[in-house]
């Protein structure tokens, strides 16, 4: 077996309507590049990136999903194992914002209760086409008690920050607040290379 | 005689018969249809997909009928309320009968708005089909005249274009000086529609998929269908014979419809568990891997690397996203020629996995998912020969 080159493994999931830029966000984060020429994601895609947080090497296993309804049975099976979910909409497309509620319901139904969530309003570089105001995005996030950020995969705005904040939130949760309060802490199962969720 | 010449003369013999022997045609196509002369593949696919009947003498009549039917679809189904009276010189008060706020489900406007949701999805997908080649962004020699010469009004992508109401930011600075900043629109998109009178290939595909969705309301449009229609259209639209090429759109529509009739279960969520649904295809694949290489099967099983992670896409799209277009064409020759469609598809997928055996046996979960999701470039003949061996055939 290969030697473990990381301390922790976090599984993240990107969801949201088709065309909001999930694949572009992931590509920007993993390869630090932007491409307008992406084919549509069918089923589920996968990327890995290792980041360093508070002196710990954290391997992020990120699953990118297809947006259309047809693929939901396939993609919802990944919700269960996810420790963090990024819910993406497109600030230039009202409908994708309205559907946030629908996606949140999906998370409630299929994901672990304590999954860390974050809402991303993508394409923030396209100010002249904006139809969803920042305030509206913030409001829905506040209403559901979720972190929120506006991003641009194209202009590389807030992409790294979004992933590190999400990873940090998971780290806080899984590792409590370091030794002193270790006694009354519930033991958290730190996932290893092999995922524990069932599939197939 | 060279091997190619011999092969071509075999094709000639089969295709020039008064009544084409489809079994022999399937056999010879299974080994691949030569790229040259260019017209061979489109003709064989039209036969293998049961669009052209085996009897040559009935081709003219069949084609005429189908192509006329396709024109009627365009006229009847690309409904433009408000435009329907365009030919009448007099203005008709449309509000009396139907209007955009009409809540009646029979309202043409209701249909129009519902259609636009489907259209929006299709529009997003056809614009991002095969981005590595420029073909689909180029203009077709045969745009749909009814549509391109109608002042841009009826073009499908116009119906779902993102438009923003013109607005200006009014800024007040000190002493009542008011500055009005009018926002400036950005440059044209990559997949910009062509100018009046022209039509890009992706626009043609958009129309085909939209008509298919309209005619198959139980299924509608599902992402990935663009990847199925793309290679067929590419083959037909590149036919060197203009008498065929001219009708690429209508011919593609019917061949695509016939093909979808056989694979549509993959695209329907409620049929996932059914006999020909995607889940059963994936378990057939898993079983075949297990039977042929228990070590690889065990490895993937232990890593809990589910077939959904990679083979869902392989099977649903008939491998069209895994290989470059010329290889996809070659694979599809064999797939369409398979007498028990689509069992050879499973053999190809199995061969792909077995060919990666050494890497899979040493890689960890993440490396293996990545490997399977991004199949390394490889001579397609190697994959197909392996698949044929698994199927008990020679290639």
UniProtKB/TrEMBL annotation, chain A:
One of its GO terms (cellular component) is cytoplasm. Keywords: GTP-binding, Lipoprotein, Membrane, Nucleotide-binding, Prenylation. The keyword Membrane applies. PROSITE patterns: RAB, RAS, RHO. The keyword Nucleotide-binding applies. CDD domains: Rab8_Rab10_Rab13_like. It is found in: Endomembrane system. It holds the Pfam family Ras. SUPFAM superfamilies: P-loop containing nucleoside triphosphate hydrolases (SSF52540). SMART domains: ARF (SM00177), RAB (SM00175), RAN (SM00176), RAS (SM00173), RHO (SM00174). It is a lipid-anchor. One of its GO terms (molecular function) is GTPase activity. InterPro entries: P-loop_NTPase, Small_GTP-bd, Small_GTPase, Small_GTPase_Rab. Belongs to the small GTPase superfamily. Rab family. This is Ras-related protein Rab-10. The lineage of its organism: Eukaryota, Metazoa, Ecdysozoa, Arthropoda, Hexapoda.
Automatic annotation (TrEMBL), chain B:
It comes from Camponotus floridanus (Florida carpenter ant). It comes from the Eukaryota. GO terms for cellular component: cytoplasm; membrane. InterPro entries: Rab-GAP-TBC_dom (IPR000195), Rab-GAP_TBC_sf (IPR035969). One of its GO terms (biological process) is intracellular protein transport. It holds the Pfam family RabGAP-TBC. Interacts with RAB1A and RAB10; in a GTP-dependent manner. One of its GO terms (molecular function) is GTPase activator activity. Residues 35-339 form the Rab-GAP TBC domain. This is TBC1 domain family member 13. Acts as a GTPase-activating protein for RAB35. Together with RAB35 may be involved in regulation of insulin-induced glucose transporter SLC2A4/GLUT4 translocation to the plasma membrane in adipocytes. It is found in: Cytoplasm; Membrane.
């Amino acid at each position: 077996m290969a030697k473990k080159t990381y301390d922790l493994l976090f599984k993240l999931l990107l969801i949201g309507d088709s065309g909001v830029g999930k694949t572009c966000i992931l590509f920007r984060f993993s390869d630090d590049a932007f491409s307008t020429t992406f084919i549509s994601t069918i089923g589920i895609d996968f990327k890995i990136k290792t980041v360093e947080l508070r002196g710990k090497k954290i391997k992020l296993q990120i699953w990118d999903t297809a947006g259309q309804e047809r693929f939901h049975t396939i993609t919802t099976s990944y919700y269960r194992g996810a420790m963090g979910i990024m819910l993406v909409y497109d600030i230039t497309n009202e409908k994708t914002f309205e559907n946030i509620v629908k996606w949140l319901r999906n998370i409630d139904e299929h994901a672990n209760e304590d999954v860390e969530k974050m809402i991303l309003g993508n394409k923030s570089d396209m100010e002249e086409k904006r139809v969803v105001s920042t305030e509206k995005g913030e409001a829905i996030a506040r209403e559901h008690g979720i972190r929120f950020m506006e991003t641009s995969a194209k202009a590389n705005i807030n992409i790294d920050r979004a992933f590190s904040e999400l990873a940090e939130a998971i780290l806080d949760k899984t590792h409590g607040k370091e030794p002193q309060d270790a006694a009354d802490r519930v033991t958290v199962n730190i996932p290893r290379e092999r995922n524990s969720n069932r599939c197939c | 005689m060279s091997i190619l010449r011999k092969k071509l003369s075999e094709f000639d013999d089969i295709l020039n018969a008064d009544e084409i022997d489809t079994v022999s045609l399937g056999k010879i196509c299974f080994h691949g249809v030569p790229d040259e002369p260019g017209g061979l593949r489109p003709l064989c696919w039209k036969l293998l997909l049961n669009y052209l009947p085996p009897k040559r003498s009935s081709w003219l009549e069949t084609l005429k009928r189908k192509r006329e039917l396709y024109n009627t679809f365009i006229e009847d189904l690309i409904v433009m309320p408000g435009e329907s009276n365009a030919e009448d010189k007099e203005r008709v008060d449309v509000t009396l009968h139907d209007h955009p706020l009409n809540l009646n489900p029979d309202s043409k406007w209701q249909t129009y708005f519902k259609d636009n949701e489907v259209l929006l999805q299709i529009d997003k997908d056809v614009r991002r089909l095969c981005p590595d080649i420029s073909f689909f962004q180029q203009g077709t020699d045969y745009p749909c005249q009814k549509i391109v010469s109608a002042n841009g009004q009826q073009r499908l992508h116009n119906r779902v274009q993102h438009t923003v109401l013109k607005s200006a930011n009014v800024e007040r600075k000190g002493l009542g000086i008011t500055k009005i900043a009018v926002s400036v629109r950005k440059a044209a998109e990559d997949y910009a529609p062509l100018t009046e009178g022209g039509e890009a290939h992706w626009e043609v595909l958009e129309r085909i998929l939209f008509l298919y969705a309209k005619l198959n309301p139980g299924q509608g449009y599902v992402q990935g269908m663009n990847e199925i229609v793309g290679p067929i259209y590419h083959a037909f639209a590149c036919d060197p014979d203009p008498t065929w090429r001219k009708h690429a759109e209508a011919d593609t529509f019917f061949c695509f419809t016939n093909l979808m009739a056989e694979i549509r279960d993959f695209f329907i969520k409620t049929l996932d568990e059914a006999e020909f649904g995607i889940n059963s295809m994936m378990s057939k694949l898993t079983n075949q891997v297990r039977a042929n290489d228990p070590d690889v099967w065990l490895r993937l099983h232990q890593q809990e690397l589910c077939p959904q992670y990679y083979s869902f896409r392989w099977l649903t799209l008939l491998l069209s996203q895994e290989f470059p277009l010329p290889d996809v064409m070659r694979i599809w020759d064999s797939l369409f020629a398979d007498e028990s469609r689509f069992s050879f598809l499973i053999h190809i997928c199995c061969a792909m996995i077995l060919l990666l055996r050494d890497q899979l046996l040493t890689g960890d979960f993440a490396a293996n998912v990545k490997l399977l999701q991004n199949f390394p470039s490889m001579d397609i003949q190697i994959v197909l020969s392996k698949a044929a061996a698994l199927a008990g055939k020679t290639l």
